[in-house]
Amino acid sequence: MNYKYPTKENIIHLHKKIIETTGGEKGTLNEGILSFVLDLIRTEKLYSENIGDLFTRAGLLLRGIISGHPFVDGNKRAGFEATDIFLRMNGYYLEVDTDEGLEFTLSIAKNELDLDSIMEWIRKHANAVV
């Protein structure tokens, strides 16, 4: 499948806007982590297995930004928004209330959810753009 992907620059710019709008400390800690995550979701095959569908890639992106912590602050917000943008680029959007989204991203940050649980949550909350 030919998916559309955000660039590293897109996500860094998104993070900057999130910090300007909602507060927090500006700055990138490790662009390499961001590059790795973006390269990973673009991969067609990981080892001998197909890396998966759009929701697998979205789960990897979300977990990668939140757990990889590429930014000084705002990793959960940036990860959630970057994932929503990635889904929107490919015909879906996340529909979730703020409290549930916050609880979900905190669970990822605390390493309480495995990738399958993250993907299932995204799949459950993703709606096709009409």
Search tags:
single chain, 130 residues, mainly alpha, Four Helix Bundle (Hemerythrin (Met), subunit A), globular
Describe this protein's structure.
By secondary structure, the protein is mainly alpha-helical. The protein has a single domain, classed as Fic/DOC protein, Fido domain (Four Helix Bundle (Hemerythrin (Met), subunit A)). The protein has six helices and four strands. The protein has helices at 8-22, 31-42, 54-68, 75-89, 98-109, 115-125, and strands spanning 45-46, 49-50, 92-94, 126-128. A two-stranded antiparallel sheet has the order 1-2. A two-stranded antiparallel sheet has the order 3-4. Helix 2 packs antiparallel against helix 3. The model has no long low-confidence stretch (mean pLDDT 94).
Q: Helices and strands in order, then pairings?
A:
Elements: H1 8-22, H2 31-42, E1 45-46, E2 49-50, H3 54-68, H4 75-89, E3 92-94, H5 98-109, H6 115-125, E4 126-128
Distance between the termini: 20 Å
CATH topology: Four Helix Bundle (Hemerythrin (Met), subunit A)
Please provide the ordered H/E string of secondary-structure elements.
Answer: HHEEHHEHHE
Number of helices: 6
Specify Rg, calculated over alpha carbons.
14 Å
- Specify the overall morphology: globular
The second-level CATH architecture is: Up-down Bundle
Number of strands: 4
Q: Helix/strand/pairing class, anyone? A: mainly alpha
Q: How many structurally independent domains?
A: 1
